[in-house]
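Hello forum,

I keep getting stuck at the same step: I have a sequence, I want structure tokens, and every attempt I make locally crashes halfway through. Rather than fight my setup again tonight, could one of you with a working pipeline run this one for me? It's a single chain of 173 residues.
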Amino acid sequence: MLARFVLTATLTATLAFAQRSGGGMGGQGGMAPSGAGVSRGPRTGNGEMQRVERQSKLDMIADRLKLNKEQKDQVQTIFLAAMEESKPLGEQIMKARDEIAESMIAGKSDDDIKKMLDEYAGLSARMTGIETKAFAKVYALLKPNQQPKAPVAFEIMYGMFGPQTGGGSRGRG
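Reply #2:
Ran it on my machine without issues. Output:
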């Protein structure tokens, strides 16, 4: 029973995360140029679909913090380095998630599943460390008048370097 509950919670969280987050570095909400993440919006009066542009996470952060071009370029370099560092870890996280689900479906013992969940939590904590380290580098670039707005940037960064789950243009990796 506990295994089914944990499986249901894991799958629900996965779906919620996939819906909540706009993605990693590219596509919807990623670091692609502003016009790159284009989606179809509501219909116009003549029945055609209106195009709605979505800002990348980098653009959202740059807007909120009022970054100049040089700062934005530096932030992009920081984010690309963090993405590169996090890629192997993201793959490990996805593999661990798959193993947990397979073990629950196979009816493995609660002790075995708890061990896998603990390992997964450790991997997730390491990913949060990469995200936090990138944020600290971004914060160091900020001028004193930009620093009070920094928590908003950290909030936007959530999941930016993590494994790419869910649907849409996100894909894995």
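DSSP finds five helices and two strands in the chain. If your local run keeps crashing, start a new thread with the error log.
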